[in-house]
Each structure stands twice: as structure tokens, then as C-alpha cells.
Amino acid sequence: MALIGMRGVCWGFGGTPLLEDIDLHIEKGERVGLLGRNGLGKSTVLRLLSGEMTPDAGEVWVQPNTTVAALEQEVPRYQRGKVFDVVASGLGPVGRDIARYRVLTEKPHGEETPGGSMEATEEEIRSLQQKLDAQNGWGLQNQVETIVSLAGLPADEDFSVLSAGMKRRVLFAMAAVSGPNVLLLDEPTNHLDVEAITWMEDYVLQNIRTLVFVTHDRAFLRRVATRIVELERGRAVSWSCDYNTYLTRREAAEEAREKQEAQFDKKLSGEEAWLRQGIKARRKRNQGRVRALLSMRRERENRRKSQGSVNFQVDDSARTGKMVIEAKKICLSFGGQPVIDNFSTRILRGDRIGIIGPNGIGKSTLLDVMLGNTVPDSGAVRHGTGLQVASFDQLRRNLEEDKTVADNIGEGNAFIMIGDRKKHVISHLKDFLFTPERCRTPVNILSGGEKNRLLLARLFARPANVLVLDEPTNDLDIETLELLEEMLFQFAGTVLLVSHDREFVNNVVTSTIVFEAPGRLVEYAGGYDDWMVQRRVGQEQRAKQPEGQGRKERKPEKEPSGDRRKSRSRTGLSFAEKRELESLYEKIPDLESEHEDLCTRLSDPELYRQTGKEDIAVIKNRLQAIEKEIGQAWERWEVLEAIANPEHNRQNQDQEQGR
Questions:
Q1: Cβ-based neighbours of 209, under 8 Å, separated by 6 or more
Q2: What is the mean pLDDT of each run of 10 residues along the chain (659 residues)?
Q3: Disulfide: which of 41, 226, 371, 577 matches 18 by Cβ 3.0-4.6 Å?
């Protein structure tokens, strides 16, 4: 049964409406991913569903007794108060009572509240207790405390001093705390680190039954969405499948649509040629054909074109030297806390480096140190020759909100230089999907995705051979992300990238610098998934290593001692099992040796500069296969050893039970 929906909804201002005759029904238990290019109305749909906006035509309906909560795309500027109070406000008036009661009861004994006596305070506490008793306030207070704890939020911290990522976590908790029947999320992963995104995915899957969300995070979409609704040409198209299946079906549907439109255009062209014959078309018996032609013309005029593709081009004609940035034993601390501790690296031309770590741990600070904007406490940073750096700032501080889109690019000039070419500002902005009318509007009315496209237009309007991208994926639609990935892959210069978008990192970088603890930076080959694999392998090897012994001491000997030979000769092993056990003494060390060699190759950045994607994929697949073979070989060896040495096996079991 549908909980919320739209019937014939239209919304827009001037010209072609943004939303046209939208029908949308959200069934109980669905998790609907709302997709579409920036500026096509995804956030508008969520605001209409939440009741924040009303449609120009049609209706938005909600089933009786259905509660709806929403997380907006932007952090509200007016939001104030302690984190606990902000989360509790998601419960409405009773939440404000809970927050007030907490303030009053947690004051030291005998302390008066500002502007009131102790007697008045005690009277207010009694009044609040009565209200909370009548409204299940204590159970709701427990809900607030639980989600604050699960989200890892500082309950008594002031909301205004939090980082952008932490603010998003607080606002998500505020939207989810009441356990709404329908939760609406607009770009919920913006500014969140990977750990927070993973927690949010788990929380949604375990606690939220019905969900409508807009996101650019493809990994989040793959894990969460059960249905896809795509906004295109002013209409909503529903795909009752997960994201991967949607991609396959949509490609097939797009090919069929283009073929159908080509056939229609061919027929229309033929009818137009017939009409130009003149006298034949004016005969009475042909008037029906003329009317059909006029109808075809109207249909062709009303056909909405898909929004174009962003055209990314970077002028990287001036090359750097082979060595771009070299850091030697750099250390940096703030307030006695280490941010970077004894870190060294060497970045060469063509490297694409991803920087990964929790919010607030120092990723942007590392960029500043590497670029020479911040001087480390110790150590040295050396730059190569000919560096031309272009930076993307996630906080959009480079945008002048009161100026128009065009003025933010041309700075009052009608033309800009792109390499050695002179190009009109409007023409450059068209490459980033800004219409001439949109180019003349103030920046402060743009959507988040449009602002990020404008930042990219500024970035690529300047010559650069080193791109520094600090969270460039926020608010961008998926098609633009994929085009940006392709451009970065083809870019001949050097890229430094900070991003929490797991798939974007996987598709772009050649190596990653990971903040594994405050101040502790470790460099890995490959992207996010490669880091996870290498980290897991390291953890498994450390877990298998007996305390106080090296890993190699656990390997079976290639040449067993005489006592071991006698022991095996006295067992009930069959001849085939004896041969199998002998072969394992040779096989396991060889497999582990090959495993070490492959890990060494994958950790060498030169591999990614000299080897194609297909060959790297072969190496990774072989590494995974070897890990599986090693595990199976060890399990089989332990089984055969237990049969070969039953007395030794029983002693081990007795020791384990004794412990």
C-alpha cells in the first residue's frame, strides 16, 4: 500500500516547467533512489513530498497517520544549540521539552538558571516531568540518547562549531530519531567520511523501512536502493529494480528510444517533402494527411531533448618535471596533537593520489603542507619545476555569491583564454551545462550541484598541470561524475584528490595515502578497494602469527625430520593421503612466496604507470585466487596432520581446554 505520492504534479516558473505531470507512488518498505541530472528537480520532488512546497498543479497526498521526515541538502544557517537539543528537536514539541528538562536537571545542585530563581527552576522541572509522563517522554528521550550514541555525536558540543561532515550526521540523526514512516534524504553522504557513510547505510537498512533519497554516491545506491525513479525531460520514469539492473535496462531502453525517434524523424522528413509538392497536398482527400503532418510537427517540437554532457578540457600543455612533490619526514601538530607524524612520500608526474581518512583528521592540512601553503614543524617539502596548480575547494570559498555565474568566470570580461585560444565566457559555461539565461543569474540561487559545476568551470578555465581536488563529488550528478572520472584518467598531469566517494576513488587514483590513526599516514597502491584488500591481508597475517614467533615458523618444513617420517609411517593415512601431505609441504611455501611477490608488485607505483588496466586486473585476480588456495591448503594440511599425529592433536586439544 502506497504511503505517499503525487498525481499529475506540475511545478516550474517561466518557459518549460521543471516538473510536468508527475505521477509517483511510494509503497511501504521501498527504498527509492531518485536520479537525474543537476537542475532537473530532484530536490524539488523531495520538498513537494515533505510539504515544504506546494505544486503549481496536481496534488501531493499522504496516507493518514503517516509521518514524514526529511534531511535537506544544505545545512540550515539558522540551526543553533547543543547537539543533543538539535537531535531532540526532530521529535517536535516533546523533543524541545526533553532538551529543556535535560538542561535543567544536569545543572549542578543549587545553581540557578539565567533569569530565574531556584524555586522557579524546580517548578519548571515538575511541570516538564508531568508533560513527559503524559507523552512517553522518557522512552523518546532514550531514542535520542541511542541515536546520538550510535552516530558517535558529541551530545554537549555546540552545533555551530562542528565540521560540515559532523553537522550532516547531526541533521540525519534529527530526521531519523522519530522513526518516521517515510524518510526523505537529499544527498545524505555529502561531507561524510567513509566510516560515517557505512554507518548510515547500516542504520538505514536496519531501521528505516520506507525511504526516498537523492545521492551521487553509487556505492550507497547499490547497497540501499530497491527501486530507481529517474527524472528526465520533466517526467518521472520508474524502474522496479536495483541500481545495477537499472543501468543495464536503461541502456537498452535508450537505444530503443533513439531508434524510434530516428524512424519518426525520417517519416516526418518524408511528409515534409510531400507537403512541399504544393497542389497535391491541398486536395481535399489529402487534408487528413496534412493534419497528421501538423500533429507530427507539434510532437517533434514538444519532444524534450536530454540534457547535454559536460565538456571537460584542461590545458595541461606546460609539463612539470618528472618529480612533482617530495616530502621528507614531515611532522605537524596542532595543540599538542599530531596531525602528520614523520611522513615521507615522492609524487611523480602522472600520479593520481587519493587521500583517505575520517573527517577532521587532517586531509586538507596535508594538501596545504604538500603545496607549501603550511610550513611543517619539521621535515621538508620540495617541489619540482614548472608546477601550475589549480584547486577545487569543497567549501566553495572561491565563489562570489552576489555576482552572476558569468562574472565568477570572466571577472567582468566577455572573453577568457583557454590555453592559446580566446573563448567567450558564455560558450565556456555552455560546456558545463549552463544556459545563457542561467549564466546571468546570481550564484546564490544555484543548486549545490550547479555551484560545483561552476567551480569546475573556474578550475578548467586556467592552465594547470597539477589538479588539487578537495571533495569534488559533492552534489554532482552521476553522469557528470563519470565524465569527470574519464577526464582525470586522461589528464597527463598530476592529481591530488580528497574524496569519500569510494567508487570515484577506485576509478581515478593510482595510489592512496590513508590516515590510519591521528598523525599516522600509510601509502598503498591502488584505490579504496585495493587498500581494504591489502589491509585485510595484513590483519589476517598478523592474526595467524603466533605470539613471539615469526610467520615463517608456522610453515611446514620442506624436509621433515626423521622423527616426523617415523610418525607418519605409523598412522592410518592411505597411500594417496601420504602423497598429498608430502605435496603440501612443497605447495604451501611456493604459494606464499608467489603471494608475497604479487603484493610487492601491486605496491609498486611504477606498475600503474607502465601497465594497462587489464593486466593489473589479472594480477589482482591472481592474488585473490592465491589467497583462497593458501587458505584451502592450510585447512587440508591441518586435517591430514591431525590424522597423521592423533596423539599430538589430542594433546593440543587438552591444552586448549585447560586454558
A1: 28, 29, 181
A2: 90 75 92 88 92 91 93 83 93 91 71 56 86 89 92 91 87 93 93 88 92 93 94 86 90 79 78 65 62 72 56 63 89 90 91 89 91 92 87 72 86 77 84 84 81 82 85 81 82 89 89 91 88 78 57 40 38 62 77 80 73 79 83 78 60 45
A3: 41
Q: Checking DSSP bridges between strand 466-470 and strand 389-392, what pairing results, if any?
A: parallel
Task: Name the pTM for this structure.
Answer: 0.67
d(CA 338, CA 620): 35
Residue 252: burial class (beta carbons within 10 Å; 0-12, 13-18, 19+): exposed
Between CA 145 and CA 152, with CA 146 as vertex, the angle to 5 degrees is 90
Q: Which residues on adjacent β-strands are paired with residue 303? A: none
C-alpha span between 270 and 264 (Å, rounded)? 10
Query: For residue 181, which phi and psi values (nearest 5 degrees)?
Result: -65, -35
Q: Which residue has the cell 582525470?
A: 488
Is the CB of residue 151 less than 8 Å from the CB of residue 169?
yes
Report the alpha-carbon distance of residue 505 to residue 512 in Å, rounded: 9
42 vs 48: CA distance, rounded Å: 10
Place of cell 514538444: 302
User: Which grid cell sits at 319?
Assistant: 609539463
Q: Domains in the chain, ordered, with CATH?
A: 1-80+175-234 (3.40.50.300), 81-157 (no CATH), 258-302 (no CATH), 323-529 (3.40.50.300), 545-658 (1.10.287.380)
Element containing residue 37 per DSSP (H, E): none
Name the nearest CA neighbour of 498 among 347, 353, 390.
353
Distance of CA 496 to the CA centre of its chain: 17
Task: Give me the pLDDT at residue 566, please.
Answer: 36
C-alpha cell at 572: 592410518
3-state secondary structure string across 365-399: HHHHHHHCCCCCCEEEEEECCCCCEEEECCCCCCC
Secondary structure class of 616 (helix, strand, coil)? helix
Q: What is the rounded distance in angstroms from the CA atom of residue 380 to the CA atom of residue 366?
A: 13
Q: Quick one: DSSP state of residue 82? A: B
The one-letter amino acid at 157: E
Bridge partners of residue 239, in order along the sequence:
228
Q: State residue 555's pLDDT score.
A: 41
The C-alpha atoms of residue 385 and residue 394 are separated, in whole angstroms, by 27
**pLDDT value for 46:** 94
In this predicted structure, what is the pLDDT of residue 311? 60
Residue carrying the nine cell digits 555569491: 401
CA distance 452 to 464: 18
Those residues with Cβ within 8 angstroms of residue 12's Cβ, 6 or more apart along the chain or in another chain: 18, 19, 20, 56
Determine the residue type at 429: L
Name the one residue in this structure whose C-alpha cell is 589476517: 540
Predicted confidence at residue 228, as pLDDT, reads 95
Which residues does residue 352 pair with via DSSP β-bridges, in sequence order?
Answer: 495
Assigned C-alpha cell, 590: 611456493
Alpha-carbon distances of 605 from 325, 343, 468, 524, 640, rounded to whole Å: 15, 17, 19, 9, 41
User: What is the full DSSP assignment across 342-359?
Assistant: EEEEEEETT-EEEEE--T
Which secondary-structure segment (H or E) carries 190?
A: none
